Amino acid sequence: MACRQAAKETLEAIVSGEGELYLAYRRLYGIWSANNAAVQELRPLFRMEGIEADGTFSITDEFRARVLELAREILPHFLS
After folding, report:
1. CA distance readout (Å), 19 to 13, 16, 34, 47
2. Cβ neighbours, 10 Å, residue 71
3. According to the model, what pLDDT value does residue 55 have?
4. For position 34, what pLDDT does the model report?
5. Are 72 and 79 in contact (CB under 8 A)?
6. Residue ranges covered by each domain of the chain
7. 14-56: per-residue pLDDT in tens?
8. Which residues are CB-neighbours of 63 under 8 A, at least 6 positions away?
9. DSSP per-residue codes, 8-61
10. In 3D, which of 77, 78, 52 has the Cα closest to residue 63?
């Protein structure tokens, strides 16, 4: 599925530190919003306390660290 490939590539970019984390997060949210049945593994990224993925939030060091941590946990599900 194209959405799973796009999610995999975006997760890899986050984990490797390529590009802007916020833009990658927004891209993953777009993928998840349109195809959540196919990419259920992404759900934890959009259930973080105090963060409304479709709303306004601050890009803090804590946010960056949590997204990176979750991306590392989720990525292996897209490698098989």
Report:
1. 7, 9, 23, 23
2. 23
3. 85
4. 95
5. no
6. 2-78
7. 999 998 999 999 999 999 999 989 999 999 999 998 888 888 8
8. 48, 51, 57
9. HHHHHHHHHT-S-HHHHHHHHHHHHHHHTTT-GGGGGGG--TT--TTS-----H
10. 52
